[in-house]
Design goal:
The protein is α/β, with parallel strands linked by helices. Helix content is 33%, strand content 24%. It is built from 14 helices and 23 strands. The strands form 6 sheets. Strands 1, 2, 3, 4, 5, 6 and 18 form a 7-stranded mixed β-sheet that branches. The protein has a 5-stranded antiparallel β-sheet with strand order 19-20-23-22-21, with helices on both faces. The protein has a 4-stranded parallel β-sheet with strand order 10-9-8-14. β19 and β20 form a beta hairpin. α1 runs parallel beside α9, α3 runs antiparallel to α4 and α3 runs parallel beside α6. The chain is globular. The termini are far apart. The structure holds flavin-adenine dinucleotide (FAD). The site of flavin-adenine dinucleotide (FAD) has 35 residues, from α1, α2, α3 and α9.
Length: 477
């Protein structure tokens, strides 16, 4: 036994923390994992896993309702019950958790504590359920939780957040979703398809305000077509309980309105989990954005690292994993690696999905000026989208004059998967036109890559001085 009980103690057993202890144990380090709840974190219990399971059930319901589109006939009247959907979502959550429980970590040689009270005593000691544990290095991966806005009356009514919505026993008839970001947009898609009348309220002029506007407009139209009532530019002013559930009083550019629904889901933003850890005792600085780290993910205490949502700037499971690997390596290995956020992809799983990596058109113009090349591929021109009846969508590639990919934006079926071929090229500095040399299996949604790369290749050939000279000769004849 060395000077300390452990080489590394990780606080927070979500996506980031789990990645960190798995790597540390793999390196043969004495490792502990502590969490104030069950391991798995937001992704498993109240984020990615339940939301995507719910979306999957919702998609199945949608396909049943639209069976005619596939040439199938159903006996009328068709009734698709939603009573057991949440139970099925929770079963999937449990299945994922089973691979992340204390048992699993014990087998890896990690000492683990679930449902524990955790606080720093100083920079090398923490108290876990009143017992002192010491470690040479720590990692804080305590994630984030929903922001509750100070709307008058909100504290007087029963409302849901992503932390409680998946425990709901009965599907409501109607729901107000406050917040048109990724969580609000995904859950509007899911609940509407499951027969809930959804009103999506967003203060900004558009939903998914940080995404490519051209694609968001197509998506918003699709959501409205499916029955979501979208109120943008609308501020929630106050909330009241009413005989029919909850009434939200709003203001849309000076015009007052009220919406009543059985339930309210609040999804307006995220805040880092820094409270209760006694970070001051360890010398770990933090502010409203979360724990302050340098480019090596080291906090203001030199033996304490942090990763995941509690750090930001991107709050995704895959970023938490990436940061955890980087921070664990920096904490335990003799060399140091800087974090690099140049190539971070993400995907909002509305239907169609909206996937992205890099700059939007307006961001690219602001940074690089004019002369950008933008390649658009509509899903309607992709045979696989035609056979699958998934023609709604558009892919947009933003490149510089040399064909270097600056931004990828795809709205459409399996956009999250199609994104990765472009994203790999972007991350490795492979120009778009080079992908035209790759043989793609047909028919696949990745024909989008083929078409975009073909257009980029034609542009490149036409820009070639020799080709331009020949063209000039021909036109001057
Ligand atoms: C509805 C929803 C859908 C999402 N969908 C996606 C998606 O599709 N793809 C994607 O990439 N991301 C998605 N996310 C984001 C993703 O869930 C987070 O980015 C990810 O979980 C962050 O991982 P983390 O390890 O930083 O934190 P978490 O997974 O939140 O883990 C933090 C852990 O720390 C513990 N903890 C907190 N405070 C303390 C304390 N004081 N003491 C001890 N332990 C503590 C918590 O109990 C928790 O287990 C979604 C989020 C939401 C809300």
């Amino acid at each position: 036994m060395g000077k300390y009980d452990f080489d590394l103690i990780v606080i927070g057993g979500g996506g980031g923390g789990i990645t960190a202890v798995t790597m540390a144990a793999g390196l043969g380090k004495r490792t502990a994992l502590v969490d104030k709840k069950k391991f798995g974190g937001e992704c498993t219990w109240s984020g990615c896993i339940p939301s995507k399971s719910l979306l999957c059930s919702a998609k199945a319901a949608q396909m049943i309702h639209h069976a005619g589109q596939y040439g199938l006939t159903l006996e009328k009247p068709v009734s698709v019950g939603n009573e057991r959907v949440m139970e099925s979502v929770r079963a999937i959550v449990q299945e994922v958790y089973n691979k992340e429980s204390s048992d699993h970590f014990r087998k890896l040689g990690v000492t683990s504590f679930e449902d524990a009270e955790v606080a720093f005593i100083d920079e090398t000691k923490i108290s876990v359920n009143g017992k002192t544990l010491t470690a040479a290095k720590f990692m804080i991966a305590t994630g984030s939780g929903p922001v509750i806005p100070p709307i008058p009356g909100l504290d007087q009514v029963k409302y849901f957040t992503n932390e409680t919505i998946f425990s709901m026993e009965k599907m409501p008839a109607s729901m107000i979703i406050l917040g048109g970001g990724p969580i609000g947009a995904e859950l509007s898609t899911a609940f509407t398809r499951l027969g809930v009348k959804v009103t999506l309220v967003e203060m900004a002029p558009a939903i998914l305000i940080h995404e490519d506007r051209e694609l968001v407009d197509i998506l918003a139209e699709k959501l409205i077509g499916e029955g979501v009532s979208i109120m943008t530019g609308t501020k929630a002013v106050s909330v009241e309980a009413s005989s029919h559930g909850i009434t939200l009083f709003c203001d849309t550019q000076g015009v007052p309105s009220r919406i009543t629904a059985e339930t309210l889901l609040v999804a307006v933003g995220r805040k880092a989990h820094t409270e209760g850890l006694n970070l001051e005792a360890a010398g770990v600085a933090h502010d409203a954005k979360g724990i302050r780290v340098d480019k090596y993910l080291r906090t203001t205490a030199k033996n304490i690292y942090a990763a995941g949502d509690v750090v930001g700037p991107y709050q995704f499971s895959h970023v938490a994993n990436y940061q955890a690997i980087t921070a664990t390596a920096n904490a335990l290995l003799p060399f140091r690696r800087k974090v690099n956020y140049h190539h971070v992809p993400w995907c909002t799983l509305t239907d169609p999905e909206l996937a992205r990596s890099g700059f939007t058109e307006s961001e690219a113009k602001e940074k690089y000026g004019q002369g950008l090349k933008i390649y658009r591929v509509p899903y309607a021109g992709i045979d696989r989208a035609v056979t699958d009846r998934t023609k709604t969508g558009l892919a947009k590639m933003i490149c510089n004059k040399k064909g270097t990919i600056l931004g990828i934006h795809i709205l459409g079926e399996r956009a999250g998967e199609v994104l990765h071929e472009f994203h790999t090229a972007k991350s490795l500095g492979i120009p778009l036109y080079k992908l035209d040399r790759v043989i793609h299996a047909y028919p696949a949604y990745n024909d989008i890559v083929k078409q975009a790369a073909r257009s980029a290749n034609i542009d490149r050939i036409q820009a070639n001085p020799f080709v331009r000279f020949i063209k000039l000769l021909r036109t001057s004849k």
